[in-house]
Write a structure and sequence with these properties.
about 90 residues, 2 helices, single chain, mainly alpha
Length: about 90
């Protein structure tokens, strides 16, 4: 059937109209969701991306804190003068 140019043209025209209609439905749905202050799929995906980035940062921070807790405290090479040594008191 698709070998017939008229059928192929009608089929192509129909598919083009389907995609145009789907685009209009998608835009209208986004406007409706925005009107009711509901997140769209794009909004949810954007939030998931941000949450994953924050989760990665927290994992890195947790690893660094764990390393600091395991490693022995470092000693300072020079002694810092205290406020008491200078005679200042609150």
């Amino acid at each position: 059937m698709l070998a017939n140019p008229r059928v192929a043209e009608a089929f192509s025209w129909g598919l083009q109209r389907i995609f145009e209609t789907k685009g209009r439905v998608d835009r209208n749905m986004q406007m409706l969701l925005a009107f009711f202050n509901l997140p769209s799929r794009t909004d949810v995906n954007r939030l998931l991306t941000k949450i994953e980035a924050i989760q990665g940062s927290l994992v890195n921070l947790n690893l660094k804190v764990d390393r600091l807790l395991v490693s022995p405290p470092r000693r300072r090479s020079s002694k810092q003068p205290t406020d008491e040594a200078h005679g200042t008191h609150d």
